[in-house]
Sequence to fold (403 residues):
Amino acid sequence: MTPVTAKSRRGAYSQAERAAGRPMRVPYGPAKEHLDKLRAMGMTDTAVAAEATANGFPMHQSTVTQLGRKFPNIHRDTEAGILSVPLDDSLACDGKLVDICGAQRAIGALMLKGYSLNWLSQQGYIYADAGHAGGCNGSHAFRVIEGRYKTTTMGTFRRTYAAAQKLEESYPLDLGMALHAVSRSKNYAARNGFVPLSCWDHDTILDPEAVPEWTGACGTWDGYRIHIRESYFGGTEIPLCEACRQAVETRPAEPDRFVWKPKAFAEQVDSSGTSLKRLADVLGMDSDAGLHRWRGGEYGPKYRSTVERLAEALDCDVSDLIDEGWRSQQKKLEPVKPGEFNPYAARIVLELAETAQAKAADLIGVSHGTMNNWLNRRTVPASPAAVQKLAEQMGVAVEAFYG
Fold:
């Protein structure tokens, strides 16, 4: 008598199932077609296997990856597991591959607060992959920060971003981190240009081409002004971002030449229903007397940046207010280098301190023409003592006047 073994029992069971019209192995075509749709939605093989396992069909990622490569038929439970994963965008989202920049920026923001990579990893705030339930080690996090990975999954980014939001309002020292570790993390983050989490929203943090939004108006003169105001008058240090530097410092500090169109300005004011008083508030003017003179044609604004702010307030184009046909073609300048006198910041400091150029010149004992040349980037102060004295008179740190 032939002994009964597990193999013979499986064979008998398979024959019985085939006889009943339920074969153990089925063509891989339907499962492969469904898998292709899931992949097209952005799901990774790891995410498909995890979802199939959750649906009662234990499956490894390699099973999904090798589907149909070696054999034309697959086990019916494998097919059932893959077909059990619905074509649901919410599931695909966590498995979708996204640029690594989002995770980099979230981790970088935490390092700027003082959190070390080792501490974040040990506490489980940084994850290695979408299906990883625990944390990863510090070396993996360092590779993320260094940009050695190009992509990660949306699930990994979401967990990292949620951790950054959770820890943003806390302090590392309160959570037991050593002072030297906090200082080292902050210094590393500052050297590498990491920015606070508040500079990103959920859309821009995943865009590798996006720039951090420090002020709500970065890339404009207003944004540049907010940087200076908050850093030296508001008590919140927000260093000048590259977008603001490029927008302001690369064009000449001296007034751009253009022809003011008072009639067009009057028409825009009347059609918009905006009062001159409100425009004066937008421009930071003490009264609307100057605007009445602009409207009457006695004179016009000196700076193109002022015209740009007017156009924005009136919801019109700059060309509606000025004629730039004979505007001088001036060479584009380089941004102010670190340690150089910054005429743009100096002009803003004088404005915020409500000090006219002539008065500032009198306070430090230089001629009005010399002060005008400094502020229009024609010359630079020959003596640091003059800048130091100006800073003292304005009540700000001398660093406010340097790039």
Strands lie at 25-27, 73-75, 97-99, 151-153, 259-260, 322-323.
